[in-house]
Amino acid sequence: MSEMPTEPIEKARPESPEKAGKSGLALDRFITFAAVIVLFTFFSLTARNFFTMRSILSLALQTSTITLMGIGVTFVIITGGIDLSIGSVVAFSGTIAVIAARAGLPIWLSMVIGLCVGVVTGLLNGLMITRLKLPPFIATLGTMMVTRGVALTITNANAWPAPQDFGKLGNGTVFGTGPQFPGIPYPVLIMIAVALIFGFILSRTRLGRYTYAIGSNQEAARLSGIKVNQVKMINYVFCGLLSALVGIILASRMVTSQPNSATGYEMNAIASAVIGGTSLMGGVGTVGGTVIGSFIIGILTVGLTMAGANYFMQQIVIGLVVIGAVTVDQLRGRK
Prior knowledge:
Layout lengths: L16 H30 L6 H26 L7 H17 L4 H24 L5 H20 L4 E2 L6 H4 L1 E2 L9 E2 H19 L1 H11 L1 H6 L4 H27 L1 E2 L7 H11 L11 H20 L4 H24 L1
Antiparallel strand pairs: 1-4, 2-3
Helix pairs in contact: 1-12, 2-7, 2-10, 2-11, 2-12, 3-4, 3-5, 3-10, 4-5, 4-10, 7-8, 8-10, 11-12, 11-13, 12-13
């Protein structure tokens, strides 16, 4: 009679939810990054002058504003919220910064005032959502209308010119060597710095862990001792701050205040987050994914323009991409 084995036989263990979530997120990021490579290669072959250094720098410059707004709204969406006031905050903060510069304040101080406008707007959104218990959709929709209305009222819906020094931030470059390489625009460097800082906050700090916890299960997060309202308010302040930064950059690029600018920008920002893998159900998303998602939108916009497609066709294509991304997110959530 053969001896029975003395060591217990190990059973195959299913993959933990945490590991499964990380592997799924890594797969999403790989797919979106592969989409960037495919789109870039496609337009390089089909669109004339797409694969040039000037075109690439122009693409990065145009994408920088979408990326900055997308990073801010990513924090909000991960908690299960939404911010529809982004575009209006962009116009409002840029307008206030230009008005401050026209009043004779130093350029740096006028820009700081513009950033403070975004912080205050984000704080008000957070207070309405956490204290008054308003749905994020309604609260930020109201803020969108109020801030846009104020910007149009104080300027009488007209563009106001800013001092020439105000345009250095939006139009300056570094490391330029000539016509073939005019240099890296300041907004692109700002985009890189913001992506690194906020990526670190979301992935390596306690605030980031709390943000994911609230989006995954708000009640469980509250019972575990997380100050849910405080974390939500901080994230809405982040969103307002980055929207104001975009407003200052755009006003600086045009060297004027544009109270009518940035209409519909909130849709592009949310789209970049969703395309990059941020779940509208909350609890899932990364800054890196949002950066990749914003570049997908940027490549589509620039590439289709160079290929001869009109603005309406661009909107159709980007809309279909967003629908596809949300569909994948919903199917993944059901699974």
